[in-house]
Amino acid sequence: MTDKTLFLIPLLPLLCGALNVLFGMRLPRQLSQAIAVGGVASSTVLTLVLWPLSAGAGTHVTLFTWLDSGTLHVPVEILFDPLSASMTLMVTGVSTLIHLYAIGYMHRDADYARFFALLNLFVFAMLTIVLADNLLLLFLGWEGVGFCSYALIGFWYREEKNASAGRKAFLVTRVGDVFLGIALLWLFKLFGTLSISGINAGASQLAPHILTLLVVLLLLGACGKSAQLPLMTWLPDAMAGPTPVSALIHAATMVTAGVYLLCRLFPLVSLSSTGLALISAVGAVTAFYAATCALAQREIKKVLAYSTMSQVGYMFLGVGTGAVAGSMFHLFTHAFFKALLFMGAGCIIHLCGEENDIFKMGGLRKKSPLVFWLFLAGALCLAGAPLSSGFFSKDGLLAAAYAHGTPFYLTIYILGAFTALLTAIYTFRLLYLVFGGTSRFTGDLHGLPKLMTWPLIPLALIALFSGVLNLPEIFGGHQWLDHLLHAAGSGESHPLSHMQEWTLAGIATALFAIGWAVAHWRYSRFTPAQEKKAVLFFLHGWQADRLVHATLITPFAFLSRLFWQGADLAVIDGILESLGQGCQSAGERLRTLTTGRVSSYLASLAWGLLLFMLFFLLQVVQG
Amino acid sequence: MIVPLSHILGFSSALFVMGLACVLARRDLIMILIGIEIMLNAVGLALVGASAFWQKVDGQIFVIFLMAMTSAEVAISLAMVVYLRRQKATLDADAYDGMKG
Q: Domain tally for chain B?
């Protein structure tokens, strides 16, 4: 077995996706689905088999040279180091479970081939991002996931709402991609190469202000993909897509690509302390913003969408504090529990007959205990219940911020801790509204296909217990992930005393308990009431859409109208058309001269002759 | 030379103007053609007179050519008159205004 086998990891999903694209509709449904799941599952197995290759500094393999023009030399190369290997394992593993779930979810949809082909293509593009050791190859994957995300959000494109949600996601993430593209070009100009390893190795020679600008550009690129402020408006709308898509793309993998990018380039990013501070500020503010929005949402998937935004904000916060391993840890645990929550939400929506509004649910605990327990497992992780995976990962990030000790990072810590409280409140609000109390649901409960529940069971177990991956020492762990990802780079470490760590853990537990209590007091007996203005403000995401409309879209539309009707129609078209009309009316007048009668031609001939004669006569007289 | 050149030129000019007047004043196709013939003959007369005045044969040769051309022109135009007459049953030149713009 050679190292090149590593290329099979991304290429298998591509192959299966291509099979489904070409023959999907001609194959029996079972076979088409089996191909889709098989591609991703074999990638998972392959990642496990090839895991030893990632040891130490990892394995670097080049397949062939993609572009070779002048100084631009772009080989298709991948780097299988601990960071990319663990990310690959997470992506393929979670994708496999989601693909299985999708079979159950899509069991009545006629367009299964398109759906599975796009899902497989997405996995391919995502794995390209993860494994690529060349920024241009990474960018290829980056655009690939963007396209698949667009096509899958608008999967049910016959409804205008879904199609425009897909367009919005595509356009908003494209804004970020432009900045990433600029960063790429600049990096190429500075280093003469786009190899990630090369850039990371040579980053220390750059001037500080250039580094800071580069980090800002990369951050903006990451913000677009990861739905961070100010490019976050697309994520709530992206929930128009099928639920497996939300679980895979908009919770577990694609939205964390920005975090992964920053981690991958961390040796470069970490050199700019201003950039790091900016990253954690963006993360903390987004986490807080999204948590407040999640408090007011009525649609179950939008609660989860805002909570995803908020949790990705935590990851940015972590990268900004220099805790790469901590961020990746939170990325993994979040991928597990959020995919679980989304798929649970899919089950709930299916049970209630495509009802999205949590105000119209309630009492589902007795109706479907299995879904309740699975959803509870995810929710406990999200809320940060002590000893669940979310507790350790989120706590680790907040501890890293606290450990910096500067007033700026303390502020970040306080914002993050307050967001943790909000997280607990909105999570339990969701639980109480959906599962607690009496049923407000009118209509029959539907059954669930088996494939929609049993992939959730392993995921729930992983979600609850993945905390052991990076168990802090005070809980008797060895911080395995920290050691594994040490090579990926880490900022200056500020060890905390055990006393401080216990205090932080105590604060986190207290916040969780307070959040639960508040949610219990407010939502355990719930009757829907008219929403107040403040709630509506949060429901609409702080009116961010309206702000974008007023500041960007309206002026842009005005300018477009000005150029269209003012410049193009009035000036340019006006000049051309009046020229044409002038010529035409002159011709109209001239054509009356052409009578077609010989006599008038002869008369004008005679008059002309007379004029000549007069002219010569004058000449003679004058001469 | 018995007749002075000025007389010949004066007569030829008078003939030419009469021909032109005929072409301009008449509407009948045949009369227009006759006018053209008269104008051509006026030109021929002027050429012959000039040839005699300068004692050079060029002008007379030119008149021979003019006669040949005139006979050809008459042949074509009379054929056209016959053809047009068949088209519209009239010889009024103003009736044929098919080239009107």
A: 1
Of A397, A415, A69, A121, nearest to A254 by C-alpha is A121
Tokens of A91: 């992506």
In a domain, B100, yes or no: no
pLDDT digits (tens, 9 = 90+) for B47-56: 999 999 999 9
Q: How close A576 gets to chain B, by Cα (Å)?
A: 26
Q: Is residue A585 part of a domain?
A: no
3-state helix, strand, coil in chain B (%, to 5): 80, 0, 20
**Those residues with Cβ within 8 angstroms of residue A622's Cβ, 6 or more apart along the chain or in another chain:** none
Q: Do A597 and B94 touch (CB under 8 A)?
A: yes
Supply the range of the domain harboring residue A47.
Answer: 3-542
- Does residue A590 lie within any of the structural domains? no
Considering only CB atoms, which chain A residues are within 8 Å of B20?
606
| Residue B28 is assigned to a structural domain of this protein | yes
ipTM of the complex: 0.83
Most B CBs within 10 Å: which of A602, A604, A607, A613, as the mutation test of the B interface? Answer: A602
pLDDT digits (tens, 9 = 90+) for A298-313: 888 888 999 999 999 9
Whether A575 contacts chain B with CB within 8 A: no
User: Alpha-carbon Rg of chain B, whole angstroms?
Assistant: 17
A592 touching B, CB under 8 A? yes
What CATH number does the domain containing B57 carry?
Answer: 1.10.287.3510
Residue A343 lies in a domain: yes
Domain containing B80 equals 5-89
- Mean pLDDT value of segment A436-461: 79
| Segment A351-392, tens digit of pLDDT | 887 778 877 777 777 778 888 888 888 898 888 888 888 888
pTM over 0.90: no
